[in-house]
Amino acid sequence: MRALALVCSLNASPADSSSHHLAEQVMAEFARHDVRGEIVRVADHDVRPGVAVDLGDGDAWPALREKVLAADILLIATPIWLGHPSSVCQRVLERLNAESSETDDEGRPLVSGKVATVAVVGNEDGAHKVSSDVFQGLNDIGFSLAGGAVTYWVGEAMHGTDYLDLDATPDAVASTTRALAANAVHLARLLGEHPYPAS
Description:
Number of strands: 6
CATH architecture: 3-Layer(aba) Sandwich
Distance between the termini: 25 Å
Number of domains: 1
Oligomer: single chain
């Protein structure tokens, strides 16, 4: 079983990223369930704006899309900016929107049976709003959501501490991340054995 994390930080590598840090923690929890995969920082790639599978002329999305289609579990990790997912996250959702018209031979979306999860970081409240925005888009496209499919950390309003700068992961974040991984892997295995019916 494979997982793919798309980190939607505004910063390309090698810049520090709290979203990337939380994605690493989620992937470590997946590994405890024998799920392997990779982390991709989207800002490192030339993903063009649009809602098509391939926009040509050096568009990096088709290669990332292949990774999405090869994964059983997708993690979208995003910071909160002005109460919303990052612009990079929005672009990923827009590009994934093309999957709405891509189906298998039985009429199911190509992402049917894949499980989506979300990780959110920020320095103010808004994690529930951001995760609901991302969840709705992913579910519309055809991804399934396990119970507790989000982990997040937000500090108090108007402070400057990043998740990456914490001395230790808060217990509540660690236990939520563990539950996300366990539930997502469980659902992905069930869907692998019992696919959704044809549309």
